[in-house]
Amino acid sequence: MRRRNFLQRAGKFFLASLAGLGLFTAASLLPRPPRKIFLKTKDLENKKLFVGEDFFLILTGNTPRALWRRCPHLGCAVTYNPELQGFVCPCHQSRFDLTGKYLSGPAKKDLRPLKIRQTEGGLLVEIPA
Ligand code: FES
After folding, report:
1. Looking at the predicted structure, is the pLDDT value of residue 56 above 70?
2. Looking at ligand 1, which residue's alpha carbon is closest to its atom 1?
3. 109 CB within 6 A, ligand 1
4. Radius of gyration of the chain (CA)
C-alpha cells in the first residue's frame, strides 16, 4: 500500500513537471513585442545623426529614418564612421552608406530599417525583440 501511494505521487509529480515544462516552452516560443524607444524632439534639434544603443536615427532630409545597428552578417553592433560618412561593422569591416545600403564586406545585405512613429513631442523607434 505504501509503495502504491509513493508511485501515484511520483507519477503526479512527473506529469505536473511535464506540464510546467510545456507551458514554459510555449511561452518562450510566443513572439515578443518590439521595444519602443521615445526620443524627445528637443533632444534631436540640430542633429543630423543620433546614435542610440541599438539603432541609428538619420535626421537629414524631410523624413527621419531609423536603422538597426545589428550587422546582417553575424550581428555585431555597427558603428558610425565620420571619415567614411557611413557605417562600419567592427567585426569583419562590412560597410554601409548613410541610408543603410550595403557597400562591401561579408554582410551582403543592407542594414535593417526600423519603424518610426511621430508622436506628440518626439519620435518613437521600434526595436525588434
Ligand atoms: S558581423 Fe558584421 S561583418 Fe561580420
Report:
1. yes
2. 74
3. no
4. 24
CA-CA distance, 65 to 5, in Å (whole number)? 66
- The pLDDT value recorded for residue 89 is 98
Task: Give the model confidence (pLDDT) of 85-124 as tens digits.
Answer: 999 999 999 999 999 999 999 999 999 999 999 999 999 9
Q: What is the pTM of this model?
A: 0.78
Question: Residue 39: CB partners within 8 Å, gap ≥ 6?
Answer: 50, 52, 57, 122, 123, 124, 125
Q: Which of 68, 69, 70, 73 to mutate to test the pocket of ligand 1 (most atoms within 8 A of CB)?
A: 73
Locate the ligand 1 atom nearest the alpha carbon of residue 75 and give its number: 1
107 CB within 6 A, ligand 1: yes
Residue indicated by cell numbers 506529469 = 15
Q: How far apart are CA 55 and CA 45, in angstroms?
A: 18
Q: What percent of the chain has pLDDT over 90?
A: 68
**Residue 32 grid cell:** 515578443
